[in-house]
Amino acid sequence: QVEPVESGGGSVQVGGSLRLSCTGSSHYTMGWFRQAQGKDREFVASSSWRAGGTYYADSVKGRFSIFRDNARNTVYLQMDNLKPEDSAVYYCAASSFLNSDFETQYKFWGQGTQVTVSS
Fold first, then answer.
1. Strand runs (DSSP E) across 14-73, as ranges?
2. Which residues pair with 88 in a beta bridge?
3. Helix or strand or coil: residue 48?
4. Helix (H) or strand (E) holding 22
């Protein structure tokens, strides 16, 4: 069992950067999801417990990067060139699947951290 805990959210201007952190486990696939106000939660990125496997939502490809430090049981989401539509609560989650962009395949969830991008 793992209890993801997110940190690193905050407010930033358009074009800025933020790095989110999540304590998780090197034995799980770790994913990031986000939920904007009034919208459904959506997949952002994931990192497989097997080295080298990553998925990204089309909306963040080329701007966001997910990477992990297994020695610290931590996964990071580096977010660059942020846009107002990236504003949301970002959730970290853990899955026992090899890799996944399906919310239902993630069993353990963090409480979320707010990211606000203003113009």
1. 18-23, 29-35, 42-47, 54-56, 64-69
2. 115
3. coil
4. strand 18-23
Dump pLDDT digits (tens) for 5-49: 999 999 999 999 999 999 988 889 999 999 999 999 999 999 998
- Can you give the pLDDT at residue 41? 97
DSSP, collapsed to helix, strand or coil, labels residue 98 as coil
Instruction: Assign 52 a pLDDT band (cuts: 50, 70, 90).
Output: low
Burial class (CB in 10 A: 0-12, 13-18, 19+), 58: exposed
For the chain, what is the mean pLDDT? 95
Rounded CA-CA distance 47/34 in Å is 16
Q: What six digits make up the tokens of 119?
A: 């113009």
Among 81, 91, 86, smallest CA distance to 22 is for: 91
